[in-house]
Amino acid sequence: MVCTDVVGNWGSTPQERADNYPCDALVEQPDIVVFRAVDVDAPAETTFRWICQLRAAPYSYDWIDNLGRRSPRELTDGLEHLEPGQRVATIFRLVSFEAGRSITIDSTTPLFGQVAITYRVSSIVPDRSRIVAKVLCVTPRNLLGAVMRRILPPGDLVMMRRQLLTLRDLAEHDSRPLADR
After folding, report:
1. What are 51-63's pLDDT values in tens digits?
2. For residues 144 and 88, what is the distance between their CA atoms, to the nearest angstrom?
3. What distance in Å separates the CA atoms of residue 41 and residue 22, rounded to the nearest whole number?
4. Which of 48, 54, 130, 164 is deepest in the core (most CB within 10 A)?
5. What's the CA gap between 23 and 9, in Å, rounded?
6. Burial class (CB in 10 A: 0-12, 13-18, 19+), 14
7. CA distances for 147 relative to 80, 83, 152, angstroms
8. What pTM does this model have?
9. Looking at the predicted structure, is the pLDDT value of residue 4 above 80?
């Protein structure tokens, strides 16, 4: 089910939805395809560095998806050193990455089925960037899967919107001059 409304395409443009992403190679026939995107008033390098922080925590609603622990609000040394197989956002593993540009993660669980996501960072102008996330899901082939096909897109919107806005805010904070912080 390719979502065509705001629930499925929050913040993304038609061109972004038409592009190819590394996650496309991981899921042949997704049940769910959604996009999330946000502009960031920070250079792409800073924004990508915050995307690497997903290795430490999910950065959405910590009380739900981080067992109540607060996601770090400062960059953690070493998280920018990416290698396939690393854990990301608690339940995912890093499949591939393009240094400074994108990370692709996946997870397979009984509840959600297979989920693959690419987070792509691009430069708009030297001090502005954009995060686009493409999410692909193959849900379980049972009653639970039928329910997930209905609730995953809006549930993901709530969680990933918070995640992207948090990462945006942190990148923007880090890109401001020290005197303005």
Report:
1. 999 999 889 887 7
2. 25
3. 25
4. 48
5. 16
6. exposed
7. 36, 34, 8
8. 0.93
9. no
Helix (H) or strand (E) holding 130: strand 128-138
Calculate ∠ Cα 111-115-119, nearest 5°: 140
**In the chain, what are the domains?**
6-175 (3.30.530.20)
Question: Is there a contact between 37 and 130 (Cβ–Cβ < 8 Å)?
Answer: yes
Q: How large a percentage of the chain has pLDDT more than 70?
A: 91
Query: Residue 30: what residue type?
Result: P
Q: What is the 8-class DSSP label of residue 54? A: G
With contact defined as beta carbons under 8 Å apart, do 38 and 131 qualify? yes
Instruction: Could you list the beta-strand ranges (E) of 84-127.
Output: 87-88, 92-98, 102-109, 113-125
Write the single-letter amino acid at 98.
Answer: E
Report whether 65 contacts 57 (CB < 8 A): no
User: Which alpha helices (DSSP H) does the chain contain, by range?
Assistant: 6-9, 14-18, 44-52, 62-65, 143-175
CA 31 from chain centre, in angstroms, equals 18
Question: What pLDDT score does 65 carry?
Answer: 64
pLDDT digits (tens, 9 = 90+) for 86-119: 999 989 999 999 999 999 999 999 888 999 999 9
Block residue for tokens 């972004």: 16
- Structure tokens that stand for 31 in this block: 């049940």
